[in-house]
Design brief:
- Chain B: It holds the Pfam family ABC_tran.
- Chain B: GO terms for molecular function: ATP binding; ATP hydrolysis activity.
- Chain B: One of its GO terms (cellular component) is plasma membrane.
- Chain B: InterPro entries: AAA+_ATPase (IPR003593), ABC_AA/LPS_Transport (IPR051120), ABC_transporter-like_ATP-bd (IPR003439), ABC_transporter-like_CS (IPR017871), BCA_ABC_TP_C (IPR032823), P-loop_NTPase (IPR027417).
- The complex is a heterodimer.
- By secondary structure, chain A is mainly α.
- Chain A is built from 15 helices and four strands.
- Chain A has a two-stranded antiparallel sheet with strand order 1-4. A two-stranded antiparallel sheet of chain A has the order 2-3.
- In chain A, helix 3 runs parallel beside helix 5 and helix 3 packs across helix 11.
- The radius of gyration of chain A is 20 Å and the shape is globular.
- In chain B, a hairpin with a 2-residue loop joins strand 1 and strand 2.
- Chain B is globular and about 80 Å long.
- The chains are: A mainly alpha, B alpha/beta.
- At the A-B interface, helix 8, helix 9, helix 10, helix 11 and helix 15 of A face helix 3, helix 4, helix 5, helix 6 and helix 7 of B.
- The structure holds adenosine-5'-triphosphate and magnesium ion.
């Protein structure tokens, strides 16, 4: 078996564009779920809003990319307000139901045949990333990062922008979560009536959390669309949201580094298992499977790993065991 | 110990205010901080609260007592905006408070604690306390990003929190998670946290429940201290010894209504109160025949109740959501 190949593929995935996308989406969820306790099961909708905003602005209307970015941010704020106003005064599970439905609505709208001229139907939209790659400072070629991984110049550019975004957003959250503002969010997660009794406008804080998490989700959408030079509706299904939750819980909720490490490990393992299985089958180390079965087996193994993690390390990689112990009281 | 001790003069002032008041429900007080009119709260067919008129005297410790299910907690919930009354209005310091959301009620200086304690488990004790401080600049998102804007304020808040924690004997626990505290310690924390708001009126729902007798003594001391600091206290309590010990005035609720008011030493001998706690059949029989008659009546009633039982449990099921 070619272990160098398996490892290099896995490491590339661990720092690659998928890792960036899921990391940003999970950071948004971390604000909402990890810190505030809001169950947003529609993060895919915010990502889709980001992706389709730039795609539609450029590919359909021929307007500049950066206008699309601005539109995406504004629409993410509006979507959060739209979802939050009717539900945030109600019990927590209502938000979960509404967001999961909203995410499906967004996906079905952008893939609708009737709107094919605007959103491109199931084919989605392409040819909008030119401005972005025009700014690429990396000269054409392949970049080898010792000892054994490498990316082309386009990937280098998107990864540079993506990880800078991740670091910038994480730094902002690091600052604000240590402030009295962050304290109010964490307190709301614990018991919102207690927070009300202390004179805090709980609704306003929950709304701020929903908006900020949603805007970070739209950043994931920008990277998603630009990295593939394509926006395609079916990529923003509920699976996306659940993988983002997986990333968050794997890394540890309510920890700044949680989503970053979670995303890196999640994608490292996904590709490690996949490439490992493929290699083993190709080299006849495993002969009771064929290559077509790898996809299913890969999810089974990852799923099993997650179950074991939740049993033996429920707080995630960065979580604090003492906090989990409190739940039992 | 001296006559001019402020502790004694505040108590004396509070008691003087109640001097000679009638023991009728809804009796007017000389200087009420809270005035409540015709508050009604129904849950389906059950009228949990139906209070005609009640006034709470400023600077006093008023106890709210009543049997289980009398509606005391529900009444608290209406006044503090945690539940929406079906009817009624009330004023705090002359300002209308009905329909005002809970957080604004607290900002006006009317702060409550909960019968089932609400410690913020995964926050440390000191963070629980800091949360109580009002008008914090760092509670704005953008200001929160710049530590320089709120560091100084935070230090002052922390100082005040530590002073309170010392008074409530929780200072050793200050960096522990609130969720790791015992039940009694949580009661203490919740009361201390409410004081961080710097309220004018503190409403405590069974602050002593589950607190050991030694600690109860110090809690009673804290409550008395609140009055000395000029605060008004309204508290729910079942233990009559404690009520007698610290309260200046007692309001009795039963089946949602205020049925009597009065000074703590005489309220329990009020016939209406005895009725409420013991039911209408508390009269001792005067003769053997009467005893026999009462027994028969009681048995007949029991039998009737047993018949009706099947229906009433169904109804109860509908009332509770
Ligand atoms: N949310 C609710 N839904 C239905 N019924 C309720 C609700 N809240 C309270 N009740 C009913 O209202 C009545 C008053 O309840 P409440 O909790 O106010 O009593 P309490 O005086 O505080 O009693 P305790 O001394 O036991 O705490 C009870 O009969 C209770 O069952
Ligand atoms: Mg009660």
């Amino acid at each position: 078996m070619d272990w160098i190949l398996i490892f290099s593929r896995a490491v590339e995935a661990g720092i690659g564009s998928e890792a960036v996308i899921y990391c940003l989406a999970a950071i948004g969820l971390n604000v909402q779920f990890g810190y505030t306790g809001l169950l947003n099961f529609g993060q895919a909708a915010f990502v889709a809003v980001g992706a389709y905003s730039i795609a539609t602005t450029v590919a359909t209307f021929g307007l500049p990319l950066f206008l699309g970015v601005g539109i995406g941010l504004v629409l993410a704020v509006l979507l959060a307000l739209l979802l939050g106003i009717p539900t945030l005064r109600l019990r927590a599970d209502y938000l979960a139901i509404v967001t999961i439905a909203a995410a499906e609505i967004v996906r079905l709208v952008v893939r609708a045949v009737a709107l094919k001229d605007t959103f491109g139907g199931t084919d989605g939209l392409q040819e909008f990333a030119g401005t972005f790659y025009g700014l690429n400072p990396y000269p054409e070629g392949n970049y080898v990062i010792p000892p054994f991984i490498g990316f082309d110049h386009r990937t280098m550019w998107i990864l540079t922008v993506g990880w800078i975004l991740v670091i910038a957003v994480s730094l902002l959250l690091f600052l604000v979560m240590r402030s009295p503002w962050g304290r109010v969010l964490k307190a709301i997660r614990e018991d919102e009536d207690a927070v009300r009794s202390l004179g805090k406008n709980v609704f306003s804080y929950k709304m701020q959390s929903l908006v900020i998490g949603g805007v970070i989700g739209s950043l994931a959408g920008f990277i998603f669309a630009l990295s593939r030079s394509s926006a395609q509706a079916d990529l923003y299904s509920t699976d996306f949201t659940f993988f983002a939750y997986t990333v968050l819980i794997l890394g540890g909720a309510a920890r700044i580094l949680g989503p970053i490490v979670g995303a890196a490990i999640f994608w490292f393992l996904m590709i490690f298992v996949k490439t490992g299985l493929e290699e083993a089958i190709n080299k006849n180390v495993i002969n009771f499977l064929n290559v077509n079965q790898v996809g299913a087996i890969q999810y089974m193994i990852i799923g099993l790993g997650l179950i074991l993690l939740l049993i033996y390390r429920p707080q995630g990689i960065f979580g604090d065991k003492r906090e989990i112990a409190l739940d039992a009281r | 110990m001296h006559a001019d001790n402020p502790a004694q003069s505040r108590k004396a002032a509070a008691l003087a205010a109640f001097e000679g008041l009638a023991t009728e429900p809804g009796v007017a007080k000389p200087d009420p901080i809270l005035v409540v009119d015709k508050v009604v709260r129904r849950f389906g067919g059950l009228t949990a609260v139906d209070v005609g008129h009640v006034e709470i005297q400023r600077g006093s410790i008023t106890a709210l007592i009543g049997p289980n299910g009398a509606g005391k907690t529900t009444f608290f919930n209406q006044l503090t905006g945690f539940d929406t009354a079906d009817a009624g209005e009330w004023t705090f310091n002359g300002q209308k408070m009905n329909g005002v959301p809970a957080y604004k009620v607290a900002r006006h200086g009317m702060v409550r604690t909960f019968q089932l304690t609400k410690a913020l488990s995964k926050l440390t004790v000191i963070e629980n306390m800091r949360l109580g401080a009002q008008k914090q600049r760092g509670e704005n998102f953008f200001a929160g990003l710049i530590p320089g804007l709120w560091r100084g304020e935070e230090a002052a808040i922390t100082q005040r929190a530590e002073d309170l924690l010392t008074r409530f004997k929780l200072i050793a626990k200050k960096d522990d998670f609130a969720g790791s505290l015992s039940g009694g310690q949580r009661k203490l924390l919740e009361m201390a946290r409410a004081l961080m708001v710097q309220p004018e009126l503190v409403m405590l729902d069974e602050p002593m429940a589950g607190v050991n007798p030694a600690l109860t003594q110090s809690l009673l001391g804290h409550v008395k201290n609140l009055r000395e600091e000029g605060m008004t206290v309204l508290f729910v309590e079942h233990d009559m010894d404690m009520v007698r010990d610290i309260s200046d005035w007692v309001i009795v609720m039963a089946q949602g209504a205020v049925i009597a008011e009065g000074p703590p030493h005489s309220i329990m001998s009020d016939a209406r109160v005895i009725d409420a706690y013991l039911g209408a059949h508390h009269d001792a029989p005067l003769s053997a025949e009467e005893e026999q008659q009462q027994l028969e009546e009681a048995e007949a009633e029991l039998a009737a109740e047993a018949d009706a039982d099947g229906d009433s449990t169904k109804e109860a099921g509908n009332e509770r959501v």
